[in-house]
Write a structure and sequence with these properties.
The protein is an alpha/beta fold. The protein has one domain: Rossmann fold, CATH 3.40.50.300. It is built from four helices and seven strands, in the order E-H-E-H-E-E-H-E-E-E-H. It has a seven-stranded mixed sheet with strand order 1-7-6-2-5-4-3. The model has no long low-confidence stretch (mean pLDDT 86).
Length: 162
């Protein structure tokens, strides 16, 4: 079941990271963020902020796992950061083994280039689309699917609008 969409404009990579931090600070475990957007839109910046909000130490570099597909970071919850860019549209999802940690209560998952998952997308998740509006301005759209993720987006929406 899809619920309301939440949108926020950010004006810099720092603001994208700050929004990601807010997301991470509000995670309770089991959240799945499926990120999409053009190359350079800010998917990794958002995940860097998410990591900081989850308590991943500031001195630990959070980079796009484009060449290794998957990185793990540890804070309040394990952050599983997946980048599907190099796989393109031909994903044999069940052989990658990612489903073993996606949605677990002791972890949070961020998937860059989630559109390459096709029909393999988890039934419950938060779609995060980042649209470039200019050189540094972005529109970030959160689209929750499922009750837990809808409640999460409602909580974030309340924190931004208050």
């Amino acid at each position: 079941m899809e619920h309301h969409v939440f949108e926020i404009k950010v004006n810099s990579p720092e603001e994208t990271r700050d929004f990601g931090r807010l997301l991470g600070e509000n995670c309770t475990g089991g959240e799945i963020f499926l990120l999409s957007g053009d190359l350079g839109a800010g998917k990794t910046c958002l995940t860097q902020g998410l990591a900081r909000g989850l308590g991943v130490p500031e001195d630990e570099a959070v980079t796009s796992p484009t060449f290794v597909l998957h990185c793990q970071y540890y804070g309040r919850f394990e952050l599983n950061h997946i980048d599907l860019y190099r796989l393109g549209t031909e994903i044999d999802w069940e052989h990658l083994g990612f489903e073993e940690f996606m949605g677990r209560g002791d972890s949070v998952t961020s998937v860059e280039w989630a559109e390459f998952m096709g029909e393999e997308m988890p039934h419950e998740h938060i779609g995060v689309h980042i649209n470039s509006l200019g050189e540094t301005e972005r529109l970030i759209r959160l689209t929750p699917v499922g009750k837990m993720h809808s409640d999460f987006v409602d909580k974030i929406s309340g924190k931004i609008s208050s």
